[in-house]
Amino acid sequence: MPLHIDTLFLLIDFLGVFVGALGGALSAVRETRYKYDLVGVTGLAFASALGGGITRDLILQKGPPLAFVDVRYLMAALAGAAVGLVFASRVGRSTERVIVFIDAAALGLFAVAGSTRALEAGLHRLPAFLLGGVTAVGGGCVRDVLSERTPKIFERGELYAIAAGFSAAMFLLCDWLHFSREISTTVGALCGFSLRLLALRFHWRTRPVRRET
């Protein structure tokens, strides 16, 4: 029996939160400049997993952030942080590939989720596009700022924010063409997911604006 679009949406959403927390915890544990304790690792894991969604919901001002309304978001983030703490030294290359694959899927769904919530709040498509990107990459930005680093999405590197923007843009284009929400969600999520994996496969990277001398 095929999953309903809302059920699939929630499944990927929670999986994305879990992977975001796992990635944040692994990043904190492997950090060489600082020696984070239990609170530090858990805090950065939560910031990475939930920062984008909370920022979006605060901007929308439509009640408490979703992460505080549905306790399953906090449970997924806590589970990801716990796994990162316990198995940080045991995560090998094959496991990291699986995490990258899930993260790419979550990137597209987070972007679509942010745009969807913005449209449902009555915003126009351009703000919805921006909030889609904020939802997808905001957690990583919050984590980097708390770690005293320039957010990675602002520097030369992999197509992460661009993939999120592409996902949100394709979702909004399908919505503008009056496709069903199921089709719009699928197209948008697959576009971001595919671009992210292609960028990793072929090493597509952005270029710095200022040329090095």
Overall shape: it is globular
Number of helices: 8
Catalogue the unreliable spans. none
Q: Total domains, how many?
A: 1
Order of helices and strands: HHHHHHHH
Helix content: over 70%
CA radius of gyration is 17 Å
Span between termini: 59 Å
Describe the sheet with the most strands.
none
Strand percentage, roughly?
A: under 5%
Assign the structural class, choosing from mainly alpha, mainly beta, alpha/beta, alpha+beta, or little secondary structure: mainly alpha
Counting DSSP E segments of at least 2 residues, the number of strands comes to: 0
Mean pLDDT: 87
How are the SSEs ordered, and which strands pair?
Layout: H1 5-29, H2 38-60, H3 66-69, H4 71-87, H5 93-120, H6 125-146, H7 161-176, H8 181-202
What this model shows, in words?
With 213 residues, the chain is mainly alpha-helical. The protein has one domain (5-202). It is built from eight helices and no strands. Helix 1 (5-29) packs across helix 2. The chain starts with a helix and ends in an 11-residue tail after the last helix.
Question: Main attributes?
Answer:
213 residues; 8 helices
Q: What would a concise description of this structure say?
A:
The chain is an all-alpha fold and 213 residues long. 74% of the residues lie in helices and 0% in strands.
